[in-house]
Amino acid sequence: MGCVVQRTEEKHVDRVDWLFSKDKDDASEYVLFYYSNLSVPTGRFQNRSHLVGDTFHNDGSLLLQDVQKADEGIYTCEIRLKNESMVMKKPVELWVLPEEPKDLRVRVGDTTQMRCSIQSTEEKRVTKVNWMFSSGSHTEEETVLSYDSNMRSGKFQSLGRFRNRVD
After folding, report:
1. CA nearest 93: which of 66, 60, 65, 71?
2. Fewer CB within 10 A of the terminal residue: the chain, N end or C end?
3. 164 falls in which pLDDT band (50, 70, 90)?
């Protein structure tokens, strides 16, 4: 979840707090706080939340893994810049979609289509998409297809053993 402060001055992030509430009238609980170069996830988010933004570039973005239906609600990012008392707040509403079927059975030699849709309440475009493959619970994931709008080609690229087999 993005949380970037647009500033022209050279001030860096001093503190980032991410809070969660079911709706705007509910009490908030901490998801994660960052202070003095230390990021601390808390409570039920402890093993699933990570600060992924570059705080030296005023980015306090959050990564939430293993999203559950109970995670649906309002996440509020609060950023404080060094030597400033003002707190910048940005709410992000998270909607959790129902789980899609996990198993897809296809005959050898057949073609199949898999869908991935992303919905956001923000007016931002997708800049990166990765399709991953794993043949079992104890195997390493392989990148099947990758798209990064920041790359020169700006198109999907199939990788590894999936090259020339995936569009």
Report:
1. 71
2. C
3. low
